[in-house]
Amino acid sequence: MDIITQLQEQLNEMAMVAVNTFGTLQRDAPPVRLSNTYPDPLNPNPSPDDASKPQVQPNPGAAPPQAQPPAPPQPPALDLAEHPKAMSHALVLAAKKFDALVAALPLSSEEDQLKRIQDLQAENEVVGLELQKQLEAAELELKQVEALFNDATDNCINLKKPE
């Protein structure tokens, strides 16, 4: 695989990692309050002592509440602090690999590049002339085949024997 294709693939990988990183950061970001004077949409009527909630009084003759059975074990939670670090690390590694590929590009002066362009243009002209000759030969052969085909069809239609 040539260096340009490797650069293109690495750039695509960097773009994918960046999009996934930014998407994950947006998805996992905690809510942020715009201003202290802006009301909290989750708690529109905050009060220091929740007097609005009725206090539950235990019944004097009722049996004491039974202990709840232990909850089933929860799967390990995703470490939201480490996940962005890991994704950022992957993005940095992809960028470093891209930089290494760029550093591996051959260096040449402008004169060398112009000479290479002229050489490629001359090679293109030679190949173009050869292709043109082949096209002309193919067209001539096609005309000959068409003439033979027309003769053959005329002979078949007129029931003539070939000469």
From TrEMBL:
<feature type="coiled-coil region">
    <location>
        <begin position="128"/>
        <end position="155"/>
    </location>
</feature>
<protein>
    <recommendedName>
        <fullName>Mediator of RNA polymerase II transcription subunit 21</fullName>
    </recommendedName>
</protein>
<feature type="compositionally biased region" description="Pro residues">
    <location>
        <begin position="61"/>
        <end position="76"/>
    </location>
</feature>
<dbReference type="Pfam" id="PF11221">
    <property type="entry name" value="Med21"/>
</dbReference>
<keyword id="KW-0805">Transcription regulation</keyword>
<keyword id="KW-0804">Transcription</keyword>
<comment type="subunit">
    <text>Component of the Mediator complex.</text>
</comment>
<comment type="function">
    <text>Component of the Mediator complex, a coactivator involved in the regulated transcription of nearly all RNA polymerase II-dependent genes. Mediator functions as a bridge to convey information from gene-specific regulatory proteins to the basal RNA polymerase II transcription machinery. Mediator is recruited to promoters by direct interactions with regulatory proteins and serves as a scaffold for the assembly of a functional preinitiation complex with RNA polymerase II and the general transcription factors.</text>
</comment>
<keyword id="KW-0539">Nucleus</keyword>
<dbReference type="GO" id="GO:0006357">
    <property type="term" value="P:regulation of transcription by RNA polymerase II"/>
</dbReference>
<dbReference type="GO" id="GO:0003712">
    <property type="term" value="F:transcription coregulator activity"/>
</dbReference>
<keyword id="KW-0175">Coiled coil</keyword>
<keyword id="KW-0010">Activator</keyword>
<dbReference type="GO" id="GO:0016592">
    <property type="term" value="C:mediator complex"/>
</dbReference>
<feature type="region of interest" description="Disordered">
    <location>
        <begin position="26"/>
        <end position="83"/>
    </location>
</feature>
<comment type="similarity">
    <text>Belongs to the Mediator complex subunit 21 family.</text>
</comment>
<dbReference type="InterPro" id="IPR037212">
    <property type="entry name" value="Med7/Med21-like"/>
</dbReference>
<dbReference type="InterPro" id="IPR021384">
    <property type="entry name" value="Mediator_Med21"/>
</dbReference>
